[in-house]
Amino acid sequence: MAITKTKKMPIDVRNHSGYEITYLVDDLQVKALLLLPYQRVKRIVVYLRGGKGQVGKVRTGRLLQFANAETLVVGPYYRGNNGSEGKDDFYGEDLKDVTTLVKLLHTQYPDAAIHMIGFSRGGLQGLLTYYDLPVSSFIIWGGVSDIKLMYEERVDLRGMLRRMIGHPKKQAAAYQLRDAMQYITPTSPPILIVHGAQDHQVGIHQAYYLAQALNDISLTYRTVYQQQEGHVPRPFALSPVLNQIQQWMSDVEHQTIQDDYAIE
BD-FAE-like domain: which residues (predicted)? Predict the structure, then answer.
């Protein structure tokens, strides 16, 4: 388990340098974009992208939203995407692309707090992996929390889901493997749920479902609901959410998590 290649990217911002790293997973060369701070790494943010292929690809600007002077931010491309070897498995073997990277970073920076952020598709990508990793918390933002709900609400994606996973009834076992709540326990790391009430790509009922499920097992969580925003907040509504995410990570690290709340 090691980084096999590091490529310097033309990314030089105030506090970070950018690299495309390649690491080995199941004999596959999987790539990720990494922003390395000039200062000592005290926090790591692992951004789990949404989409597939070029849709939702990992971008520098997105990673920088979660960076500060002492934060390493990294976004795995997943196998079969953007130059990574293999075939995208959509919550299958590609989950190893996440777990391997997190364990690798934890080995390199054992004293750094690690937070995972899953956006859209990345929501379930994180829920299916974070609970068994050395992480401090998971943030699910506009994220899928239940694959069956995704199949029901996104009629336009049913063909893709049938090709990659199968039909929920005919391939019930494959869908059952992708049910994250069977793995999450009351002692799992805490979760921040961020969602827009006007989200038409991943309906807010995905967030409500997850909040209720976490409540039922008494896992610590917090919710941030933006009543007037969609899948991606408008620019004026983006800054408050990013501030709340930063506050959440700080609260978790200092063990000062308060009750949940909403942003209007």
Answer: 135-214
The residues pairing with 41 across neighbouring beta strands, listed in sequence order, are none
Q: In whole angstroms, what is the distance from residue 99 CA to residue 97 CA?
A: 6
84, 120, 136, 188: which is the annotated catalytic residue? Answer: 120
pTM: 0.95
pLDDT digits (tens, 9 = 90+) for 118-157: 999 999 999 999 999 999 999 999 999 999 999 999 999 9
CA distance 126 to 98: 8
Contact 98, 126 (CB under 8 A): yes
Residue 214 one-letter amino acid = L
Q: Verify whether residue 120 is a known catalytic residue.
A: yes
Task: Spell 52-70 as b/e; 16+ CB within 10 A means b.
Answer: beeebbbebebbbbbbbee
Domains and CATH numbers, the chain: 3-253 (3.40.50.1820)
Phi, psi of 5 (to 5 degrees): -155, 140
